[in-house]
Amino acid sequence: MYTQEQIKPYDKDDDKGQQVEAMFDHIAPTYDKLNRRLSWNIDRGWRKKAIRQLLPHQPKNMLDIATGTGDFAILAAEMLHPQRIVGTDISEGMMDIGRKKVAERQLDSIVTFKKEDCMNLSFDDNEFDAVTAAFGIRNFQDLDQGLREMHRVLAPGGHLSIVELTSPVSFPMKQLFKIYAHTLLPFYGRLVSKDKEAYRYLTATIEAFPQGELMVNILQKAGFRQASFQRLTCGICTMYFATK
Question: Per the confidence metrics, is the pTM higher than 0.70?
């Protein structure tokens, strides 16, 4: 079994970060369409639940890590009404689509995008009062380092909200998801995105990613406190919430 850091999209010598950037640039035009269909359109509901974790705290200055095409940042802007959300990603192709969606919704004054290496963020210590990540941290080249950076830029008392795809742990969903993830998901992903490796890679990252109590321990090791998790949709997705 490979660890999360060892799994790469392509069989090349380039480091994982470079390969992930190239992969998402390539699949960006079809990414949103595939997400909706492959998740049966329930990914929006998962994002909403993750954002609701922040509602009591009313963050005003937010950072959305691995923002992709900006769906989480846009939904957070509409639900939380912060003063500022910075969406960061390594893929300009994904963020370009996000910029168009933000402009269409007239959220330009709130949501901006910036290319960033999540292993070495350019932001100041304690700059944000909320940090979020939806379906992206399993692509980190180094999960521990990425979480330490998220902790560094979060203000004391600020909150972290993560939603991530995970492997179900209970019968029969565990067995059904395994069949789905190794057959329909990569087949349909290859058919629509024209990238035969991308959705096989994404399946592998889901299976290798630490989840539940193990992920809570990793968050605590990175410096977060009051870390907790909640499984959604029979464990296909998991939410995490923590405080600095």
Answer: yes
